[in-house]
Amino acid sequence: MTKEQWQELYKNLDAIYSEYSTAYYKYEKGKNKQIRASGERDVDSLLNKANFYIKKNTEVYNLLTGGENNTDTGRIYNYDDFIKSWHFQGALADFLDVIKEKIESFDKA
């Protein structure tokens, strides 16, 4: 991927990260069943968007799931852990840091 593609990915995932906190709060702490259901739909939608952006490029998926040296089983385990709703926000923040380092590495090359 080019630097510009990584920057676009970062922008898209950062937007998801920004929206996720509110959606997850509604899902977990909503005052009534209707608010919690709305939050759950929002969380699912954001997880699906992130899934799309990550899985549409093998290089991104490999970076998230442990690099080139990881086994397929290891990748599946890492990705399943990443995409769980209660773990997603922290894991996405960490992945955004990794992407930022990847973008900065283009300037050093």
Structural overview:
The structure is a single chain. By secondary structure, this protein is mostly helical. The protein has one domain. It is 85% helix and 0% strand. The mean pLDDT is 95. The protein starts with a helix and ends with a helix. The relative contact order is 0.15. It contains five helices and no strands.
**How many whole angstroms does the radius of gyration measure?**
15 Å
- Alpha-beta classification: mainly alpha
Termini Cα gap:
14 Å
Low-confidence stretches: none
Query: Quick one: overall form?
Result: globular
Which percent bin holds the helix content? over 70%
Number of helices, where a helix is a run of at least 4 consecutive DSSP H or I residues = 5
Say how many strands there are.
0
The biggest beta sheet is recorded as: none
Name the beta content range.
under 5%
Following the backbone from N to C, one meets helices and strands in this order, namely HHHHH
Domains (count): 1
The average pLDDT score comes to: 95
What can be said about this structure in brief?
The chain has 109 residues and is mostly helical. The chain is built from five helices and no strands.
What keywords describe this structure?
109 residues; mainly alpha; globular; 5 helices
Topology record:
Elements: H1 3-29, H2 33-55, H3 58-64, H4 72-83, H5 85-108
